Each structure stands twice: as structure tokens, then as C-alpha cells.
Amino acid sequence: MGKEMPADMSGFNPFGDLIGLQFVQCEGGYSRCTLEVGQKLLNPHGVVHGGVMYSMADTGMGGAMYTVMEKDELCATIEIKIVYFKAVREGTLVCVTRIINRGKRVAALESEITSGGRLVAKASGTYSIFAVKEH
Amino acid sequence: MGKEMPADMSGFNPFGDLIGLQFVQCEGGYSRCTLEVGQKLLNPHGVVHGGVMYSMADTGMGGAMYTVMEKDELCATIEIKIVYFKAVREGTLVCVTRIINRGKRVAALESEITSGGRLVAKASGTYSIFAVKEH
Amino acid sequence: MGKEMPADMSGFNPFGDLIGLQFVQCEGGYSRCTLEVGQKLLNPHGVVHGGVMYSMADTGMGGAMYTVMEKDELCATIEIKIVYFKAVREGTLVCVTRIINRGKRVAALESEITSGGRLVAKASGTYSIFAVKEH
Amino acid sequence: MGKEMPADMSGFNPFGDLIGLQFVQCEGGYSRCTLEVGQKLLNPHGVVHGGVMYSMADTGMGGAMYTVMEKDELCATIEIKIVYFKAVREGTLVCVTRIINRGKRVAALESEITSGGRLVAKASGTYSIFAVKEH
After folding, report:
1. Nearest CA in chain D to B105
2. How many structural domains compose chain B?
């Protein structure tokens, strides 16, 4: 992770640490993060819990957002929808996120989660952008 | 939790255990689960990570689904959308899930997540139902 | 429609008129609108086009929003998700909409569409609220 | 429209006709349809009603689905989410739809709606695929 990584994404991130999420890249309205599938991330069926893939998308969207925001701006997730295509039992998950529209007050993003190059889930979300003083 | 709890929901659930999710009730197309907010569930802003609330909804929907399925049926999440209303820093999260439509092959569910009685997030999801033999 | 109906909802509404949508009630963050199913609203399968039910929800959400906004505020749809439960061939469709959360800048709403008392579709949407001067 | 156009998409389509929707291409899991903005498609704010763009997406998804289905299969919309980026007052709307995942029983699709080359809305939907005999 280079200097492009905002402070918010490189330091304190307890839940990201808990699930083993790592940012690989974070710049220009784009982010890429990865996660190694381990037993602790499985659901009762023995496959990766849907909440793990979702958490990659939500975190990846936050990372992408911070690359396009001003110093006096904050953002918050309005909503995210995630669709699942394939169950994953092991290996590395990669989540690539892009901003597809950046309005003044609302931005729309998409995250594609792949395993071994295969698309396993896709998320579509919106974030609210506001001035720190509005907070 | 009584006998109504399906085996799937009361035993092996590593990710549920990791985040501290507990089922309180699970019957008749309904489920209720809770989670104590701890430091490990926080995001970089010091509030509960959106993925935690999402994971409660996804798990709660699975729990509600199993109460209405036949022995030779399985289900899988098609998609879930979650909307956030309020950031949470501490306390207990409660997630109540109901099936709002049970078709032959697709069911629709909703989860309401509250903190101290206040609605903090709401999820709307669809699940695919299929015979074990189709799997 | 009484005095509670905002001017926006009772006058110029060409697309609403095209599909035959009528507001029955619109007050206190709630709206109810109806529509008679006719041949012109059918899709190639001979059932009501999904876009018709969606249009009821989107319009109903707009109607509910105007009951809770200040004179110097405007709103715009951020996103809406709609889930379908049952195809409809004839009769009256009723769409009931409620605001489920009203934040300072974003509101969340739900619409239930029924036919003969049976839930046939449900929508979940978010709207952005902004001052006219921001426009 | 050539022979690739399924019968369902080229003939009886009352609601499509009502809003002036025309399929330009429909093959290989892809569809493109267009629509001329006219006064009858406007909402109370004088811009194209959100339900019009949604109807393009829903219809375009149906068109794309029929290019990948067997003769003994039918499909039905499970749910669609649409996000809006920009209001449109006039001109031609173009909706391009692609299947992003085709499972055995559920397919996921995306539609991008543009006006003058500018992305104005994007939809993400899921369709259920089933044998005619199951119907």
C-alpha cells in the first residue's frame, strides 16, 4: 500500500482485521482488497459466509470513496445490494470496486468479487457525501 | 432455543461465532438473533461495520428459511439489499426476520435490525429453494 | 383527494395519467394510489408489465415524501428495488407507501402493491432531500 | 430487428408500445432498446418518470434472457434495483442489457441507460428460469 492509501484505510480497522481483509490498491475512485478464506469465515454449509463477501464490498467501496473526497468531507453507506453467483470454500477472494457515478451528494459504486478469476458475487451501492461541518 | 431450532442453526457456524451472533428464536418463518457490540466489530470510524449488521440479516434470513423448508430442500441467498439508518457504537443489536412471500422456488424475506428499540438498518432479500437432488 | 394532496401530485403528471394512476390518499408520510389494469399495461406474456407496478411504487414514494418536506425542499429518487411475487392479469392494483426512516438528507420508503388484497410486489427505495437553493 | 429477435419481443407488447420502446438488437445474452422522450413520459417535475427508465431495463432484461433460454423454458423477474444519476428532459434514451451470470435456475443481468452517451441510470436484476412444465 503506497501513499495513495488514505489514513482511514491503513490504520484502525478492527472488523477488517478480524476477517483478514487487506487493501492492495486504493486510488482514483478505485480499490482492490483481498482476503484469504479460512475456517473461521465459513457458514453452517461449510462455504464462505455471505456476510464476508458483503464486508469486502462495503469496505472496498469506502476505500474507493476516500480517494475522491475532499479533506472536509465524510461519507456513509446509504444502501448496498449484493448478488451471489457461486459458493466458495477456499482460496483467495479479490474484491475490485469502482465508482460508477459521483454526484455532488450521492455516489454510486460497484464491487466485483472473484475467486480464482471467476466472478462469485457482485455488489451495487450508494454512499452519501457530506461536509464534516454538517455531521 | 428449543427444538424448533434446525440443526444447521445451532451447531457449526464459525463466522456466526466469530462475530458473536446468537439465535434467540427460530420458528414459523420467523427468526430473532442478537449480537453484543464489541471493539472487534468496529470500522475505521469507530462504529459497527456495515458488514456486521448485514451478516445478522443474512444469517437471520437463513434461520427463518429453515423453519419452512422440507427435509429434502436446500436454500441459497440470491441477493440481499440493506439500507442503513443510524450508526451504532455500542450495546446489543437485535435482528428480527420474517418471510414476506414463500413461492415454490423463491422466497422473499425482510430483516429489521434495532439497537435499543431504534431501527438502525433494514434488509430485503430473496432466497432460492431447491431439492437436495438438484444440488 | 383532499387538501393534504400537494400541488405536485394533483396536477401535471403526464406519465401517471398515461398509465391511469390515481392518488387516493397522501398525508403524514403515507400515500395510497390505485390503477385499473387494462390491456395497454400488459407485457408480452399477457400480464401487467413489471414497469407498471414499479411506476406505482416510485410515484407513491414521491407522494409520501412531499407530505413530510418543507416548502424550500426538493427530493429525488436515489434508488428503488422491487421484488415481484405474483403475476396480475386484471383488476385493480393498490399501492400503499410508507416512510420507514426520515434522515436529514436521505429518506427510506417502502411500497406494498396488492391485487384483491394479495401482496403481489414490494418495493424498497431511498430518496435524497435537498434545499431548493442547492438544486 | 433480424431473426435473432424472439417472437415474444417482436410482436404483442402493449406496454412497450404505450411508452414507445423499440428493440434494436437482441442476441447472445445482450439486448439494446431505445425510446424517444415525449411529453407523455414526464413526471410532475417535467423530467422523464423513473418508471420509464425502469421499464426499459425490465423489458431489456427480458429480451436478453430470451436469447439464452431453451424452447421449453420460461423466465420471470425476481427483483430489479435501479439507481438514478441524472434527470432527462428530452432526446433518445438507450438501454443496453447484458447477462452477467447465468446459473441453472437464476440469471443476473445489468442494464445501463444512457442519454446522449451519458450514463443516466443503471439497473441490476435477477430472473428465475424454469421449465414450461413447472409453470
Report:
1. D128
2. 1
